[in-house]
């Protein structure tokens, strides 16, 4: 079976019993291609000292830094060992209840919810390209739900749906006592003013430090919500669950505004180029505001295998409900890798 996440591309070759070529270009994950901010790398020797002590039990200095960054009180922030840990905590909150998922979306929601015996209802968007929400169907389901999860911008499509639609869902959910979990793991790539942090009492916003700051190995994320929700989530988390190096690195990352802007510009340019190229090849391409795009070629499986033989690993969509392997996702990489990708796509589409 193919791995259920991008990254670690050797597992793809292993699963398919293929011998990987000597050089592999991994487009299956969507972490910032520039790597961690240079300041972080320079300071790394200083972080070694932190290993000798337990981390701050409250998560300082990162907790205060995040509160300041988003202009919210500290009591409205819970930290996580990656956004992934927040999703595990949330799944426990909704254990044995009903949760609505809008698909295609990040597969971890269903995985964590299933582990907590949550009854999941999945609705597929009316348009994959824009991730247009099925408003009427959502309206019908909300009265029965403890929560609805929205991934905005969405993974794997990168699309940011119309704000009126999201507002409509938030309003309807409030009427039924249903919480709205908004995963903004990829909002850093778009526009921070579009956040749903702290707008409504029943909205829980989840963020990840992983993608923009290229620190997936460090594990750092957080959620912002009403104090009562945050307290309940904190009670479920193990003591010292966020390590001291992550707390220090995360705090330093928040200073990196120029680095963020450069990364955004690079991604925007390459996403546009890629969208144009794939459209020219006759593929459907998602309206992405992030650092990846999803596209539907005539034969996704054949292209996926062809690319693998050339050392190019794309993200399959076998485990994304509503995409069923018929789409592929590409994360933006450095110029040299992008050139390899285009050369491969040329060979494939001109066949
Ligand atoms: C949409 C989305 N949310 C959350 C996460 C988890 O992020 P983290 O690395 O902070 O656990 C991912 C990771 O791929 C993701 O794609």
TrEMBL record:
Its cofactor is pyridoxal 5'-phosphate. This is Aminotransferase. Gene3D superfamilies: Aspartate Aminotransferase, domain 1, Type I PLP-dependent aspartate aminotransferase-like (Major domain). The gene is cobD. The lineage of its organism: Bacteria, Bacillati, Bacillota, Bacilli, Bacillales. Keywords: Aminotransferase, Pyridoxal phosphate, Transferase. It is an enzyme of class 2 (transferase). PANTHER family: HISTIDINOL-PHOSPHATE AMINOTRANSFERASE-RELATED, THREONINE-PHOSPHATE DECARBOXYLASE. Residues 25-341 form the Aminotransferase class I/classII large domain. Belongs to the class-I pyridoxal-phosphate-dependent aminotransferase family. PROSITE patterns: AA_TRANSFER_CLASS_1.
